[in-house]
Write a structure and sequence with these properties.
5 strands, mainly alpha
Length: 272
């Protein structure tokens, strides 16, 4: 009877915590989007403090200006598509780790790009825009809140409710002591294939509307795979991909060309 009661309680929590993504996919939401934003607002400065103390924060003014310029254009379009994000305190940092090919975005628009991504990939502005737009899209689609929910479900013994969680031991072993830690853990866990496809779709549209070539998404992905065939870049290790992802991105790019008008003037979000 106790086992049945536990199952019923778990099912009740799962049903009560269901939400819908922008593409209509069901999401586990033990953590609300607002809670994820608040937790990320606490976690982000804590994480940046660690890099600052190690002398790794924003050490390349010209490169940081380039990143902010690109992100600023993307944010303007993101806020048009997702009005709720207009209340976010968008921030972006450049982390000086030349061997780390990675970028991420917490809930509420708290972003970071690692210098290794730029040094090793040598992305054009169009390609760098695709990286940042993709990461922004994870936040816009509440994927970070979803990741936090999966991690918390694991701690609560509800990991069986999530098929994604069962596929990777990192979900099961995440030890959470608070929402801020959950926000930090969330950006280190791999997104599901469904979440990745959503971020691809949303990100490529945001980038196109901001004046960045949609086809750069495919060329970026090809570069990512060529960086080091012996050792998978961190960006790819936490972003699972089907073998035909480049082809899928090209198909998406063809659909997004109607939004791509690089000759137009594009407004930029002003970072504090």
């Amino acid at each position: 009877m106790l086992r049945s009661a536990i199952v019923l309680l778990a099912a009740a929590i799962f049903l009560a915590a269901c939400a819908t993504s922008p593409t209509g996919r069901s999401q586990l939401m033990l953590v609300s989007p607002d809670q994820a934003v608040k937790a990320s607002a606490t976690a982000y400065p804590e994480k940046l403090k660690e890099y600052a103390e190690a002398g790794k924060l924003n050490n390349h003014p010209r490169l940081l200006a380039r990143v902010k310029n690109i992100a600023g254009r993307l944010i303007v379009e993101a806020e048009k598509m997702y009005p709720e994000s207009r209340h976010w305190d968008w921030q972006i940092a450049l982390i000086d780790e030349p061997d780390r090919v990675n970028a991420w975005c917490m809930a509420g628009g708290k972003m970071a790009v690692y210098t290794g991504l730029i040094a090793k990939i040598q992305p054009t502005d169009d390609e760098l825009a695709q990286v940042i737009a993709h990461e922004i899209s994870h936040a816009l689609a509440n994927h970070v809140a979803e990741q936090m929910s999966v991690a918390m479900a694991s701690q609560l013994g509800l990991a069986a409710l999530s098929a994604t969680a069962l596929k990777d031991s990192r979900y099961r072993t995440a030890a959470l002591t608070g929402a801020a830690l959950a926000a930090t853990v969330a950006i280190s866990l791999p997104y599901s294939r469904a979440a990745e496809e959503e971020a691809d779709r949303i990100g490529i549209e945001i980038a196109a509307k901001a004046g960045y070539d949609p086809y750069a998404a495919a060329s970026l992905w090809r570069k990512m795979g060529q960086v080091n065939k012996a050792a998978l870049p961190e960006f790819l290790s936490t972003h699972p991909s089907a073998s035909n992802r480049e082809q899928r991105l090209r198909r998406l790019a063809a659909q997004m060309m109607r939004y791509y008008h690089p000759e137009e003037g594009h407004l930029r979000y002003r970072f504090d």
